Amino acid sequence: MDYFSIPISLVSLTVSLGTFWLAFVDRGRLRMTKPTIVFFGFDTVPKPTPKVFLRTLLYSTATRGQIIEGMYATVRHCGRERVFRFWGYGENNKLSPGSGLQISRTGLAANHHFVLSVHEDAYVFEPGAYEIGVNSDVVGRRKPMKLGTIKLVLSDEHAAALARQEGVLFERKIDGEYEGHSRGKNDAQHRNSGAPQANPEPINTDDTGRSTAASAGLRCRTPE
User: Fold this and answer.
1) pLDDT at residue 40 above 80?
2) Do 47 and 88 contact (CB within 8 A), yes or no?
3) Angle at 51 between CA 49 and CA 57, to 5 degrees
4) Cα–Cα separations (whole angstroms), residue 149 to 58, 124, 219
5) Cβ–Cβ < 8 Å for 39, 52
6) CB 50 within 8 A of CB 57
7) pLDDT tens digits for 197-207?
8) pLDDT(190) > 80
9) What are phi and psi of 136, to 5 degrees?
């Protein structure tokens, strides 16, 4: 009988140790699904301020989950990068300033709004290729974690809409590329769809993929 009991005991011990590791030791990583929609637009209070909106699922690869202290987005265009550091999340216009968000293994799907600080220099959405990096500060980790990069192209037409402080909604197609659509301030159909408006209800704070459009300009303008 000892020939069978010893191997069975070893297997049981291994399973127990594995379960303990997964439940209490393994920290895993925070992950993000590729957003189905990305939006360029503006908050309006205390003044029109550029923002980037996206909807995604955040999830943890470990049983114990992850706690997010904060998130921010980097917007890179023509070799220049700006940080949209104020973060809010929620559903539709019911937003909360982001802080102390716990993410489990089952994940959390939500809208995420990244707004440029009102104290920073003005930002203009110019035509061309963009790379949007989504980053998070996770409790227990010394450095920010980069969750994903989104690539898309802003056309001349859509840049003009943003110059009028309207909005541009990018939808991810089956091939993984993003196609943009202008969203006016008074677009009733857009409001009823549940997607972000050009000037949605702002977050209460004082401080804070590629398009297939043939007309998209890939040139970069030299800063004056």
Assistant:
1) yes
2) no
3) 155
4) 14, 20, 21
5) yes
6) no
7) 544 444 444 44
8) no
9) -140, 150
